[in-house]
Amino acid sequence: MELLPDLGTLSDEGLKQLIDDLQAEEHQVSYRRRVLHGQIDILRAELVARRQTTGGRSVLDEIDVDRLAEILTGKATPQG
Predict the structure, then answer these.
(1) Residues contacting residue 5 through CB under 8 Å, at least 6 positions apart
(2) Are 37 and 28 in contact (CB under 8 A)?
(3) Secondary structure of 10-77 in the HEC alphabet?
(4) Rg of the chain on CA atoms, in Å
(5) Among candidate residues 70, 25, 20, the one with its CA nearest the CA of residue 10
(6) How far apart are the C-alpha atoms of 12 and 76, rounded to whole Å?
(7) Does the predicted TM-score (pTM) go above 0.70?
(8) What CA–CA distances, in Å, run from 12 to 16, 18, 22?
(9) pLDDT of 53-64, one tens digit each?
């Protein structure tokens, strides 16, 4: 975060421009915050929907984590 410049060295026009610049930045940050909140709301709704259809179980409950670890480390014997 930038510190404010020496305000005594700014002209009235420079001060007005700094205010305008900071307000524009504030609007951009506010817009980004609203977008992020919307995305969070969508993800939470998706999570709730998934929990309702799985009875609260994780989708990972159906995955054999040990077998997956063996496959990823190359220690699994080929099936065939």
Answers:
(1) 18
(2) no
(3) CCHHHHHHHHHHHHHHHHHHHHHHHHHHHHHHHHHHHHHHHHHHHCCCCHHHHCCHHHHHHHHHCCCC
(4) 27
(5) 20
(6) 73
(7) no
(8) 6, 10, 15
(9) 877 777 667 677
